[in-house]
Amino acid sequence: MAVCEGVERLSHLQDCIMEYLRQHPEGATAKAIAEGIGSSGAVCRYSIRGLERFGLVESRRVGLGKIWRAINILIQREQELLEESRKLSPKKKGAT
Description:
Layout: H1 12-23, H2 30-37, H3 41-54, E1 57-62, E2 65-70, H4 73-88
Antiparallel strand pairs: 1-2
């Protein structure tokens, strides 16, 4: 079973990164993630970029660095479905 479209399986390191980011929803730098999971910075950054390609994490620039955070796919998909259902459902007269 695929983790998400195009992804069959995450590596053990990527699983650890995702778990760390779930525990830190505000996000973290690659250095903080590496220290938190006991990995080297370079290997961690490589794995994070893979997660970004899979659409599982996103980053934002803060100064010269990046803050990485997990994308909550279930919430994102739920919002997409809600928007689709609003487009499909007929509006009732008198409803606000």
